[in-house]
Every structure is written in structure tokens, then in C-alpha cells.
Amino acid sequence: MAVMSVESELLLLLGRQHVADPQLARVREILAQDAPGLDWGQFAAQAARHRVAALVGWHGWRFLTDKTVTGLDPAVMMLLYATYRDTRRTNEVMLREIQAISDAAVTQGVTVLLRKGGHLAFSAYQEPGLRPMGDLDVLVVREQAPALVEVLEQLGYVEGHPSVNGIVPLSKRERAFWRLYGSDLPKLNKLTGEIDCPIVSVDVNVSLALPGKGYDVPVSAVVAHAQHHRYGAASFLVPSVEDAVVDLAAHIYKTSTTLRFMTRGGKHRRLIKYVDIAELVRSAGPDFSWDLLLARVDEYRVAEPVYYGLAHLNMLFPDTVAADTLAALRQRCSAPDQLLTQYGQWDLAEPRVWQQDFLSRFFDPATDRELPASKSLV
User: What InterPro entries does the annotation carry (predicted)?
Assistant: First the structure.
């Protein structure tokens, strides 16, 4: 049985854009019963760790302002609301860069798609301030990657690590790592001079799966299905909703089973990854088809990574995924129960098996003490 603290349950309830009446009733119940003993410091830390601080702060500020919910810690809510304000200002800078990159790429005949945060912040979320992004993830077919790098360099982007003294070039070991183990190119960074977003990093993806993982998603097909998206005066290409769900679910699988993602920053424990899919499906409404998703899964042969992501999504937010779709995905997996509990199969001679159920370990960083070290080059 899952063991979840009231802080974790409250985070699940407030870590989404739309808090329906039943969820709001449960929020009030928790605060009425547990507010005096609720660890608000732990709650705030979890919100930051799971990258939903802006979402929670946005809700909290509204609840405090209209007094619809009592028992919230005002200091913590205003701190989290500051994250929302900062994210909104940062994403204004990001949007300008997205448009500049898209326009320059079109001029050079390069087809580039925005994925993950750069896509979702301006489509699935009603306000960009609700979805933080650490960098801009762009997708391009491998043959056009050199041309896209040239476009980025003309816009002032430089390969390397950002620092207070500028961009530090990659070492030979780091270059070897990217060449052998990456699904993307080394990041390119730009110093903007903007206090709200001093550095913009662009992650150029030429694949949606790590090498040697037994599956891939054909980038050319995703590009062929791409759609134009408009946000205000900005216009850029994004994956179709079905391809985006495949991408996001497979990304969860990658970061939740590969040790170098798990041991460096805990990327397997990020609620925002699951919220992204739920909000994308909700915002798309009738423009999204579960049947077409299954067809894409079969075409790309990615049932296992997609099932992994969507099955865990339904554990966090029940009924988000259509029951018949989840059952169909499960039938396409050779060992679905084993799939959901194993990790490290790409790094170790023998995979490890989690000893805790998903909901218990997802909100408890202490469970990571059993993780073996990553064998990656850098």
C-alpha cells in the first residue's frame, strides 16, 4: 500500500491547473484537520523539487485573495507565488528566443520543432508562468542539425557550459560522452543580458531515445506530423498532440530507468513531467485521439516506454488515461508488471527492482539511497 504524507497529497491536489470541486473539498478537509501539524517547509521543498511551485503558488495566491480556502500558510504561498512571477518573466524572454530561432530556421530552410517546456508553456498551460523550463528543447532531423547549429551560432549561441565569466568549452571527455551516449547535441548557450533570464540554453535533439535502448521514435515522422502553433504574435512548429504524448511518456521512461538521470538531479521524481501529459490531453480536448495514439505507438514500436509513462501517470492522477487505451498498451508489453518496477537495465549487468510501491517512493527522496552509481563517462 502507498504511504503518502498529507504534504504529498496536498501537492498532488494543487499541482494541476484545474482543481475541481471534489479536489478542492479534499484540500479544505486536509487543511481543517492537519494544518496545525502540516510541515509547510517540507511542502514548499517538495513543490520546488517536483517543479510545480509556480502552479501551487498561483493557486495559493488566488485562494488567499478571494478567501475561498483557509488554513494555508500565507508566507509559503507568497513565496511560491513569487516563483510563478519569476517563471512568467523568464518565459517572456524564452518566447522571444523561440520566435527568433523559428524565424531564422525558416529563412535557412531548416524545419525545427519546439518540444517539452518550450511547447507546453505556451499551449497546454493557460499562462506561461505556470510551466518553468530549464532550457529550450528543439527537434530536428539529423541531416539538418549542422544547419540548425549554424543558425543558432548566428543568433549568438555558443557550445559549452555557462558560467559567470562566459561560456566554458566542453572537455574531450564531455564531447566523447555526447557522441556515444546522447540523443542530442551538446547544449548551446547564450548570455542575454536580461536579469530575468540571463542565460538561454538550447538542447538540439536529433533523436527521442538514447542509443542502444531497444526503441526509437522516427524524428522524420514526428516532423511530418508537426503543426503550427500560435501564441499571441508568435508562431512556431510543435509535434502533433499524439506525438507529443508519445514523446513525453517515453521521456519519463528514459529518465526513470537510466541511472545517470536518476542519480543526477533526481529526474525520475518530477511531478511536472506527469502534469505536462495530463494538461496536454485536457487542453487538446477533441483534437486528441487515444485511437490515433495507439496507432502511432504501433507504427513507432514504442508500446513499452509509452505504457511505462502513462501507467504511472494514472497512478498519480487516476482516470487521466482512457482505461481501454491503458489496457491495450499493457497487452502490447511482454512483461508489463516487471516493466513498471525495474530500473538500471541500461546501466547494469542485471536490472534493479524497486522495493517500494510507486507512490511511496515518488515522494520520498530517501529511497534513492539504494541507487548504484552511474557508469557514464561524465
Answer: NTP_transf_5
Q: Looking at this protein, which amino acid is placed at residue 324? A: D
Helix 290-300 with 241-257: angle, nearest 10 deg: 60
Q: Are residues 94 and 232 in the same domain?
A: yes
Torsion of CA 305, 114, 287, 132, to 10 degrees: 80
What span, in angstroms and rounded, lies between the C-alpha atoms of 268 and 265?
A: 9
Q: Which residues contact 312 (CB under 8 A, 6 or more apart)?
A: 252, 256, 274, 340, 358
Q: Which three cell numbers stand for residue 97?
A: 528566443
Place of cell 488566488: 62
Sign (positive/negative) of CA torsion 274, 94, 202, 45?
negative
Q: Are 231 and 249 members of one domain?
A: no
> What gap in Å lies between CA 16 and CA 121, rounded to an integer?
13
How far apart CA 220 and CA 223 sit, in angstroms, is 5
pTM of the predicted structure, to 2 decimals: 0.94
78 part of a folded domain: no
Q: Show the domain range for 18.
A: 1-72
Can you tell me the mean pLDDT for 8-15? Answer: 96
Q: Note whether 117 and 44 are same-domain residues.
A: no
Give residues with Cβ within 8 angstroms of 346, minimum separation 6: 210, 212, 213, 257, 258, 259
Q: Which three cell numbers stand for residue 157?
A: 549561441
Domain edge (last residue) among 236, 265, 290: 236
For the four alpha carbons of 231, 232, 237 and 240, in that order, the dihedral sign comes to positive
Beta partners for residue 201, in sequence order: 189
pLDDT at 73 over 70: yes
- Using pLDDT thresholds of 50, 70 and 90, give the confidence band for residue 162: confident
In a domain, 19, yes or no: yes
In a domain, 82, yes or no: no
- Total structural domains in the chain? 3
Q: Is the sign of the CA dihedral 286, 290, 292, 296 positive or negative?
A: positive
The C-alpha cell that represents 114 in the structure block: 519546439
Burial of 331 (0-12, 13-18, 19+ CB in 10 A): exposed
Residue 175 burial (C-beta neighbours within 10 Å; 0-12, 13-18, 19+):
middle
pLDDT at 377 over 50: no
Per residue in 113-127, pLDDT (tens digit) is 999 999 999 999 999
Question: Which residues lie across from 231 on neighbouring strands?
Answer: 234
Is there a single domain that holds both residue 146 and residue 19?
A: no
Statement: residue 174 has pLDDT above 80? no
